[in-house]
Amino acid sequence: MARPALKERARARLGFGPLGPAAGASRPTLAREEAWLGWWLVIPAAALILALVIYPMVVGFNTSLHAEAPTLGAPSKFVGFRNYSDVIKDPATHSAVVHTVFYVAIALALEIIAGLGAAVALHRPFRGRGLVLAVLILPWALPSVVSGVLWRRILASDNGLLNSVLLQLHLIHTPQVWLASGWAIPLITLVHVWGVLPLIVLILIAGLQGIPDEVYSASAVDGANQARQFWHITLPLLRPALAVAITIGLVDAITIFDEIYVLNGTGLNTASVVVQIYNTVFVDADFAHGIAFAFLVAAATALCAVVATLASRRATV
User: Fold this and answer.
1) pLDDT by residue (tens digit) across 83-100?
2) What is the pLDDT of residues 168-186, one digit of tens each?
3) Is residue 206 within a helix (H) or strand (E), and if so which, with residue range?
4) ∠167-168-171 over CA atoms, to 5°?
5) What is the model's pLDDT at position 277?
6) Domains in the chain, ordered, with CATH?
């Protein structure tokens, strides 16, 4: 009796028809077993997400709705969204938002323009292309803190490489304190772009590899030069990859922290929204306002990512 049942189950798994009347009774059992297997595979991941993501978010949101307790262990007072209102009205928040807008604008411009140029130059095979790609990936592979330390020596005011080169070229007459001048935000953004650009280039190279060569051959027969091919073929067909690159660059620029902290600490002249969150939570020990600020930044980042995705989809239709 056991052998026909095993044979029937094997045939059912392979998609063959039943052997006899008992086949219909085994199908619900098999489907139920597969459903339970799916649940057992999903439950551990769902439990981890619940414990490490959902629960901290719920606790954090609840904290943002209460005022800071006057003493340790004392009950906190429910204030609703007053902490959010305080954060929005804070002049330090306005300054951090303005700095972040500059970071985002400069970073996206450099990453897309330089990334597109590098991707067009590297997507065709040539001698040494693998070595060039390996060197290109190195800045992205390095932790952002390590990159920040390297660039801090380049931008150092006493014996930094940038000051030394500019002094040798007679472009400056005295060493400059770059991170205390108006060049601080552009230079920090340059360090950020140096680490993110390889990823942008790889995404755009993958997009270029998906464009058929026959399209370029047909346009060349019709008399299109390389410039017209780029504007009328490459860019339109590269829009999905550009959308991914823009979204990644946007989110990374909004949440910039490591480069700022390593190069200039928590100085207010270069503080982004994430640095301001750090100042509020860890320097001022104001957890309620800091967590409220973090939720506002998370919501704004998600909104920007959704808008960029929808805009790219509309452009590709």
Assistant:
1) 999 999 999 999 999 999
2) 888 888 888 888 888 899 9
3) helix 184-209
4) 50
5) 93
6) 2-64 (no CATH), 82-316 (1.10.3720.10)
CA–CA distance, 293 with 283 (Å, rounded to integer): 14
- Minimal CA–CA distance to 217: which of 209, 226, 207, 208? 226
**Eight-state DSSP code of residue 142:** S
Confidence of residue 14 (pLDDT cuts 50, 70, 90): very low
User: What would the two tokens of residue 1 be?
Assistant: 């009796």
Tokens of 148: 């920040």
pTM higher than 0.90: no
Percent of the chain whose pLDDT exceeds 90: 29
| Contact yes or no for 76/67 (Cβ under 8 A) | yes
Write the pLDDT tens digit of every residue in 233-287: 888 888 888 888 998 999 999 999 999 999 988 888 889 999 999 999 888 888 8
User: Residues 261-267: contacts with CB within 8 Å, 24+ apart?
Assistant: 261/148, 262/144, 262/145, 262/148, 262/149, 262/152, 263/148, 263/151, 263/152, 263/155, 263/179, 263/187, 263/188, 263/191, 264/179, 264/184, 264/188, 267/179
Average pLDDT for residues 6-27, to the nearest whole number? 50
SS3 78: strand
- Nearest CA-CA partner of 243 in 312, 163, 155: 312
Separation between Cα atoms, residue 202 and residue 122, nearest integer Å: 10
Residue 192's Cβ-side half-sphere holds a number of Cα atoms within 13 Å equal to 33
| Alpha-carbon span 40 to 103, nearest angstrom | 45
Residue 110 host element (H or E): helix 91-122
What is the mean predicted confidence (pLDDT) over 276-304? 90
Side-chain-side CA neighbours of 24 within 13 Å: the count stands at 2
Cross-strand partners of 78: 66
Spatial contact of 278 and 257, defined as CB atoms under 8 Å apart: yes
Cβ–Cβ < 8 Å for 84, 296: yes
